[in-house]
Amino acid sequence: MARDLAPEVERLLLSRDPNTKKKAALCSIRIVRKVPDLAENFMGSAAENIKEKHHGVLISVVQLCTELCKASKEALEYLRKHCVEGLVRILRDVTNSSYAPEYDIAGITDPFLHIRVLRLMRTLGQGDADCSEYVNDILAQVATKTESNKNAGNAILYECVETIMSIEATSGLRVLAINILGRFLSNRDNNIRYVALNMLMRAMAVDTQAVQRHRATILECVKDADVSIRKRALELVYLLINDTNVKPLTKELVDYLEVSDEDFKEDLTAKICSIVEKFSEDKLWYLDQMFKVLSLAGNFVKDDVWHALIVLISNASELQGYSVRSLYKALQAYGAQESLVRVAVWCIGEYGEMVVNNINMLDVEEPVTVTESDAVDAVELALKRYSVDVTTRAMCLVALLKLSSRFPPTSERIQEIVVQNKGNTVLELQQRSIEFNSIIQRHQSIKSSLLERMPVLDEASYLMKRAASSQATVSLTKSATTATPAGSLKIPNGVVKPPAAPLPDLLDLNSDDVPVTTSATTTAPDNFLQDLLGIDLTNSSTAGGAPSATTDILMDLLSIGSFPVQNGPPTTSNFITPGQVTKHAPATPQVMDLLDGLPSSTPLPDENTAYPSITAFQSATLKITFSFKKQPGKPQETTMHVSFTNLTSVALTDFMFQAAVPKFIQLRLDPASSSILPASGNGSVTQSLSVTNNQHGQYYKLMCQGHVTCLSLSGGPWIWA
Predict the structure, then answer these.
(1) What sequence ranges are listed for the domain GAE (predicted)?
(2) What is the pTM of this model?
(3) Among positive and negative, which fits the CA dihedral 8, 13, 17, 19?
(4) Is-contact 555 561, C-beta < 8 A?
């Protein structure tokens, strides 16, 4: 219909009536969206109507031009040549026009037309230097003349800025656009500030220096009451930081960390730690900032961050004394911060004598008076305070053990503290307590060498391992997200979460060192199901033939094969011990070709094989007997003849037999020989039914579905086969 009517709509676009033109333009938009191939038909008419004076026609035609540019590259090139001049004229007219009450909104003439034209200019100027140069002047005029004290004016300015940042604009024009965004940051409206922050993040890829001029205003937005503005401003500050401004900006962020909301501290802490690690050429400055973060928000510091801090302290021998003294003082004031406690306890255990004897004092330090007992008190307090956290308590016990070697006079007191955990319900703490107590009490001769300082940790290997882990996290994040549109900058919102741990191999199915019993036979390495079920699916050389009396008839009917009679007690090879998959002895029952789904050398029963009848149900009132027959050449079909015998002294009337099967089995039920069951077993009623297995040979699917076939007598019991 769109193809048939397109010529008529195109003709109406050239009508003299403005309302008809407007309606035709709107209809053309729908046609182009439905059938993009028709875009070229409307290029000429759309370019011709750009000269129209009526605003209703103009706004419709401008939108039509935008749709044409999206639908066809040919239309885009055509409109670049024939429409740019008209668009500049429209924008100049509405910007400089006098008061027009029919188009005026808050003192601005037709802001809707403004915005539509600016968006079309953005589409035409993107990637085209000539077109961008032609519209530079009018964009500068709109940016300087539009008032920003009204919402309509702000909307026009925002579209103007976005157009400037998208086209090949001059550097001066971009600076003007960024300055407009800087004014937006001072606006009281949260929405305006938020879109300004988003646009400034995009501008960072274009003109970083121009954005840096508004650094103070952006930093104030980090302290905003609105959480969305805080997070977006924090991301922008992170992008703004470089070697020249890292120290003042980090100081501002750390100072705000003390008064920030609890909900915001996690994001703020992660960003500060990332900044400090990224620009950590000065180790002393790095340590100072990390100690402040641990003191103010230690509960929000990730494990890998304080691990890296310990590695750095281990490698900076000249700063170990400064570190342990700083951490000791921080521990006294901020003992509730978990990560701070862990780092401080580790350092006190390793370098406790440095805090007591003021070893390796720096010029910026003041001497501290700490006794050996004070150091033990600090660790003991942490041990009692963190009674729930196993990691912190374990680190405290290790630190106490090391202090018993560093400070021999406190050894007896430390032993009393350690012994208190001998009856701890946590096995890790109980074991450490017993072993540490034994070291203190019985192994004095080796204690000093056993409890020496840890060797210097390999910083390079740790950083490589951490970088590899981070790279894996980033790869997972990228694969889970969609591609970023052109012209925009993808910024992660918040802290990247670590990937979920892989599912553990609880049954150790992939282990290469599975112990094999001497009597076990070898099974296929990838066939774990047979091991788990205790089934031996290896080929059998048993000759085919009629089923024996001990054969399960139902299994034969399903082409499963036969179970040989197993003599003797069951072997232990049929049981699975934790963490071990054992193989099965030859005595394990063999299952052959479940529904012909697995290969077997056992031949199937031939077409003339007779299957014994079975009594499916018998009570004092009723006896039901089934006999079976396989259809020649159709192993998936089984015919059953059912015989019903009435054992009561009264005849049963209105006899009806029903059967239900799973969806993958097809059932054909023939009529019964009679609707009356004679009394006292004097005759029987017979009925035939045929079942066809549509998934014949699909062993695993049947096993997983676990279907059960049930048969029922009307008003009587259910029979499960």
Answers:
(1) 609-721
(2) 0.58
(3) positive
(4) yes
